[in-house]
């Protein structure tokens, strides 16, 4: 007699099919929507999500701490670390001057995909001077590479360094060659090591 299938073959009822779909849906939901208890109390910032954060502590002078945030495409954003001496001065940073030595970095214009006119600098090259409490502090490149952009907003809005030095208050964007980055990377601190060094939470 024909039983609708070979002997021993399980019969797929409508109830079983619905149950399988429910289980699959729950598994998919668990993959797409994380459990709230597994989420961080504070969501990561754009910097934390898109950059690996490095620091040059006491770069050439005590207290001259700078950050180097490296994007996956190799670009490095350079700026003042929270513990930089200028940010600890009374009143914070009050002026920024990109005219260092024989050239004004803010007048540099880089064009096209090949970044024509980009100047190549060493890690110790000066990027700008920041003024705080009557004192001048030299900000350096920290990495060897091509200077693609300086943040000329700081000329009119130096207070960005006091309020958001790691975001809108960045100093410059530099593109190092992979071989040069490999050489400098080992001399920089990781974010965790920097926080431990400076006693930051």
Automatic annotation (TrEMBL):
Name a single GO cellular component.
nucleus
Matching entries from Pfam families are given as: GCV_H
Top-level taxonomic group? Eukaryota
Which family is it part of?
Belongs to the ABITRAM family.
Name the chain's protein.
Protein Abitram
Q: Which organism is it from?
A: Musa troglodytarum
Specify the taxonomic lineage. Answer: Eukaryota, Viridiplantae, Streptophyta, Embryophyta, Tracheophyta
